[in-house]
Specification:
- The protein has helices at about 65-80, 100-115, 125-145, 155-160, 220-225, 240-250, 280-285, and strands at about 5-10, 20-25, 30-35, 45, 50-60, 90-95, 120-125, 165-170, 175-180, 195, 210-215, 230.
- By secondary structure, the protein is of the alpha/beta class.
- It has two domains: about 5-125 and about 240-260, Nucleotidyltransferase, domain 5 (2-Layer Sandwich), CATH 3.30.420; about 135-235, no CATH class.
- A seven-stranded mixed sheet has the order 1-2-5-4-3-6-7, with helices on both faces.
- It is globular, with a radius of gyration of 19 Å.
- The chain starts with 6 loop residues before the first strand and ends in a 7-residue tail after the last helix.
């Protein structure tokens, strides 16, 4: 999913500063709106059937209740879209911030019920996995000394997907705990999301595989994962742009849930002291005894 011809600006006419970025997808699809409020930063993105997209991000943090409505207004006005023009409203469904998830889903439900537009729930860990994959080419270039760490990724980095890679998104929970889920290069999950407790457990990965990890929990895992030769991605916060890209993939391929029964994926606070094995541990026979 290459994103050529991107540009950015800062909108200051609103009561709060809104950072925007524009671009165009390489394929046409239905008009969609995407909301991301699972982490510290709130963002909204939308696209036209032509593929043109607009991303708006609140430059503050943990201001979701005040920011989300303004961000929705910003992207819809920027693309001359009405809610009735949308094929679906995608929302990052969790895990993540309890308050942020409730705010995002409530906003999606309000728009959905008001205009009769279906909702596409997108797992937050899947969003981060896509962001990690898009940045792997840039990370490798930095390690080779071919690119400065602050330089933006090129379109080739966005499509860098060798088959021996795995992506491990991590969402910070509490103390040494993260919400985690392993993904392959197709951004298909390898098992269910699970609580990862550091340093009690580090997943076993097949020999020769490259592992990239990122998300808000990556910093606390760095000292443990570096020993495994895994690479930390600069992608730390889920973005509505990745929610939008995944919604374009899912639209027309999955059934829409009933908005009345849709709830955030909280992954309740950890109860057990023993960590769960990853699906790869089980598959390659390196999991805990008895597996």
């Amino acid at each position: 999913m290459a994103l050529p011809n991107t540009s950015s600006s800062r909108i200051t006419r609103r009561p709060m500063p809104i950072a925007t970025q524009t671009g165009r997808f390489d394929t046409e699809a239905t008009a969609l709106l995407a909301l991301e409020s699972s982490g510290a930063t709130c963002s909204v993105a939308a696209c036209l059937p032509s593929g043109q997209w607009l991303l708006a991000t609140d430059s503050g943090q943990n201001n979701h209740a005040a920011a989300l409505t303004l961000l929705v207004q910003e992207v819809l006005e920027g693309l001359s879209l009405k809610v009735a023009d949308l094929g679906a409203i995608a929302v990052s469904i969790g895990p993540g911030s309890y308050t942020g998830l409730r705010i995002g889903l409530s906003a999606a439900k309000g728009l959905s019920l008001g205009a009769g537009i279906p909702i596409l729930p997108i797992p937050s860990l899947r969003v981060i996995a896509l962001g990690i994959r898009k940045g792997t080419g840039m990370v490798e270039a930095v390690h080779r000394g071919e690119r400065e760490p602050s330089a933006p990724p090129s379109s080739s980095a966005a499509t860098h997907t060798p088959k021996n890679e795995f992506y491990l998104p991590l969402i910070d929970a509490r103390r040494l705990e993260c919400y985690a889920q392993l993904y392959n290069t197709d951004i298909a999950p390898l098992g269910e999301p699970f609580p990862l407790i550091l340093p009690e457990w580090i997943p076993s990965i097949p020999a020769g595989a490259n592992v990239y990890y990122g998300g808000s929990g990556a910093a606390k895992a760095e000292s443990y994962f570096a020993q495994q030769g895994w690479v930390k991605s600069p992608y730390t916060e889920a973005s509505a742009l990745e929610v939008l890209q995944l919604a374009r993939t899912d639209y027309g391929r999955i059934s829409f849930p009933d908005p009345a029964y849709l709830e955030p994926l909280y992954l309740k606070e950890f109860q057990a002291s023993q960590p769960k094995p990853s699906v790869l541990d089980t598959l390659v026979g390196h999991g805990p005894a008895g597996l």
